[in-house]
Amino acid sequence: MADRHERRGGQRTRLPGAVGALESLGDGDLVTIGGIIGAVQRKYTKRSEPYAQFRLEGLAGGTQVMAFPSIYEAVPGLIEADRIVLVSGRIDLRGRELQIRANEIREPNLGLAAPNPPSRHLEVDLPAEACTPAVLAKVKELLESHPGSAPVQVRFRSSNGVTPVEVGSVRVDPTGALLGELHSLLGVGAARVGDDAP
Length: 198
Fold this sequence. Notes:
By secondary structure, the protein is mainly beta. It is about 15% helix and about 45% strand. It has 2 domains: about 5-105, CATH 2.40.50.140; about 120-195, no CATH class. The chain has helices spanning about 70, 135-145, 175-185; strands spanning about 5-10, 10-15, 30-45, 50-60, 60-65, 85-90, 100-105, 120-125, 145-160, 160-165, 170, 190-195. The longest helix has 12 residues, at about 135-145.
């Protein structure tokens, strides 16, 4: 498959392509690739949270993929040997070999007709201790970098209760990639997708 790139947030993003062509990317670059899952290792963090590491194989080679707890718990049934998946994530060159830190793992659309999905919205909870100007700016940046049709509902949580936060007309694509970034920033469970519009 031809090698195609786009720019997002100053970083290079590889659109769906071949596993074997990853060497041209740099540490932290965003990538979306498809392949067949090979060997799978299921592990636990020090807090007993499950995660997985697996080999994603393509025609031109393979690479290791790390699915941390927030990603693994969203799709545990997909991470099985011989499954065909699409993985979106960031290149990690800090170890002995290249690997991908997954932000989303999903089944590819193989052309089968699917029913129209229900209306969805994104819910984001902002814990009081995380509400610094830098964090709020990062949340805004993440929402704007994943445009789509789903409305956003942001809630500020403190000891005084829950307060809705006005976010204007922002609409996003509430995929696992965005959820993974929000979980990394605000904590696991801070963002979720609701099936009915707010």
